[in-house]
Amino acid sequence: MKSKLPYWLLLLVAVMCAVPVAAQCPMCRAAAEASIKEGSTHALGLNTGILYLLAFPYLLCTVIFLLWYRNHRKNLKLTNPAI
Predict the structure, then answer these.
(1) Residue 24: which residues within 8 A CB-CB, separation 6 or more?
(2) Contact 54, 21 (CB under 8 A)
(3) CA within 20 to 30 Å of 60's CA: 32, 38, 68, 71, which one?
(4) How far apart, in whole angstroms, are the C-alpha atoms of residue 53 and residue 46?
């Protein structure tokens, strides 16, 4: 079995190099800044909301892939019990 250390190190480096993101389009950002200057608090959660909306399709695709993979592996074991 190969060592998984290089993969873990690569993951660690990727996490350590992550930068905070500002996931707003220029118009949304300008509207949010103007809203904050006027004293409204509605714009404070805008960036987090945009990131949630961005993450949902990836999460959905991951779940679908994992369900397919599990089903595929089960079918392989039924057709070839030696696996």
Answers:
(1) 32, 46, 47, 50
(2) no
(3) 32
(4) 11
